[in-house]
Design a protein that fits this description.
Blueprint lengths: L1 H5 L9 H12 L7 H14 L11 H5 L8 H29 L5 H16 L11 H24 L4
């Protein structure tokens, strides 16, 4: 979450020009991907309606005039449902993690937990779980559900009779 709010502020950091020049010199690419141009106005719009957001289906163009996707699930949820909606979503993800964590002795659960971490990182750059690229999102939900199903199977078969 910190990445989402710190990354757009990097150009205002006093050492940014130094690191930007190094990056350009050695890779030919900028540290900033352009997401900062989208995320900063979206964060400002979220802060205008922080509790409940602007409602489902709201896009950045509706509140900022920018006709691009946020490419960030967490910002999109906060835009549509406010920080309360984002908090509920994070609690859901935390609940999934607790389910996985309590059963990490199983190989399948460990593998799914690893994928789960990767999915959470991926969602910082995409909105696949709920909107864009639903084919990828369905696969990600499938992986999560396989892990939860495995935990339920383990709990059912190891229950004292």
């Amino acid at each position: 979450m910190m990445f989402i709010f710190v990354y757009p502020q990097l150009p205002y950091w006093k050492y940014f020009p130094y690191f930007e020049n190094l990056m350009l010199e050695y890779t030919g690419k900028s540290i900033m991907s352009g997401r900062d141009d989208i995320w900063r106005p979206v964060i400002a719009a979220i802060n205008e309606q922080p509790w409940f957001g602007y409602g489902p289906g709201t896009l950045p163009i509706d509140v900022t005039g920018i006709d691009l996707s946020t490419h960030n699930l967490y910002l999109q949820i906060a835009l549509q449902n406010g920080y309360l909606g984002l908090l509920v979503f994070i609690i859901l993800l935390l609940y999934f993690w607790i389910i996985f964590y309590r059963n990490l002795k199983d190989k399948t659960v460990r593998l799914v937990a690893s994928f789960f971490i990767a999915i959470l990182i991926h969602q910082s750059f995409e909105i696949a779980l709920t909107q864009n690229q639903l084919s990828i999102g369905l696969m990600q939900w499938f992986i999560i559900s396989v892990g939860i199903s495995q935990v339920m199977y383990l709990n059912e078969n190891h229950r004292p009779q």
